[in-house]
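Schema walk-through. Below, the input block comes first and the output block second. Nothing else is stored per chain. Lengths vary across the set, and this one has 69 residues.
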Amino acid sequence: MSLISRFISEQGKILSRRVNRLTLKQQRLITIAIKQARILSLLPFLNNEKQFERAESTTRTASFRTKNK
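--- output ---
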């Protein structure tokens, strides 16, 4: 599990090939292993440790809406 967890971001997403510096074949094998571990409940589908603040997201969308008007 420690080997597989090196290829997952803090949010629980699978890191890209460029970040991992893997070949296409290696990345496919890692992706399959991660997905199998998630199905077997060895890894979570989502990592909810990091909580996001809603105030920041609403501020960004409000400023975006005012720019488009």
